[in-house]
C-alpha cells in the first residue's frame, strides 16, 4: 500500500501563493493523480488532476490560479496555488483519481485570511 504525505500548507493572506507537495512511498507512474480538498462541513472535492501522460484538468473555481504537476522520478505531485482567496481554505490531500484509493494521508491545511 502506497503511503502519501502532503506538505506545504500554511496561513497566507488573500492574493498570496503556496506550493503544496505530495510524496508517495512508491511509484505512481501508472496512476492518474489528483489534489483534493475538504473544507469544514463540506465534502471532499477534487480540485486538480493530472493523468499519467501529464494532461491536467481543474475544477472551475481554481482554473487559471492552480497548477498541478508531477515528477515521476521523485514520486511527487505538486500543486502551485496562486491568487488564493478565503474560499480556498481547506485541508488538501492527494490521491489517485480512481478507486480503489490509496490510504488518505493526513493532508496539509491551507488557511487564507482576508
- Regions with pLDDT < 50 over 5+ consecutive residues? none
Along the chain, the helix and strand elements come as EEEEEEEEEE
Computed over alpha carbons, the radius of gyration is 13 Å
Helix content: under 10%
Mean pLDDT: 96
Strand content: over 45%
User: What is the overall silhouette?
Assistant: globular
Sheet/helix structural class: mainly beta
* Multimeric organization: single chain
User: Major sheet: size, sense and barrel closure?
Assistant: 6 strands, mixed
**Separate helix tally:** 0
Across the major sheet, the strand order is 2-10-9-4-5-6
Total strands: the figure is 10
- Whole-Å distance between the termini? 39 Å
Question: Which keywords apply here?
Answer:
114 residues, 10 strands, 48% strand, mainly beta, single chain
List the helices and strands and how they pair.
Elements: E1 4-7, E2 10-13, E3 18-24, E4 33-38, E5 45-50, E6 56-58, E7 66-71, E8 76-81, E9 90-96, E10 108-113
Can you give a write-up of this model?
The chain has 114 residues and is mainly beta. Helix content is 0%, strand content 48%. The chain contains no helices and 10 strands. The chain has strands at residues 4-7, 10-13, 18-24, 33-38, 45-50, 56-58, 66-71, 76-81, 90-96, 108-113. The strands form 2 sheets. Strands 2-10-9-4-5-6 form a 6-stranded mixed β-sheet, with no helix packed on it. Strands 1-3-8-7 form a 4-stranded antiparallel β-sheet, with no helix packed on it. A hairpin with a 6-residue loop joins strand 4 and strand 5. The protein is globular. The mean pLDDT is 96.
Amino acid at each position: 500500500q502506497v503511503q502519501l504525505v502532503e506538505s506545504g500548507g500554511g496561513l497566507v493572506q488573500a492574493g498570496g501563493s503556496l506550493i503544496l507537495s505530495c510524496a508517495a512511498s512508491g511509484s505512481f507512474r501508472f496512476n492518474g493523480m489528483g489534489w483534493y480538498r475538504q473544507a469544514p462541513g463540506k465534502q471532499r472535492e477534487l480540485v486538480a488532476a493530472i493523468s499519467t501522460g501529464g494532461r491536467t484538468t481543474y475544477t472551475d473555481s481554481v482554473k487559471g490560479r492552480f497548477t498541478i504537476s508531477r515528477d515521476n522520478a521523485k514520486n511527487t505531485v505538486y500543486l502551485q496555488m496562486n491568487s488564493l482567496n478565503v474560499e480556498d481554505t481547506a485541508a488538501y490531500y492527494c490521491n489517485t483519481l480512481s478507486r480503489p484509493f490509496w490510504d488518505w494521508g493526513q493532508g496539509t491545511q491551507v488557511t487564507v485570511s482576508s
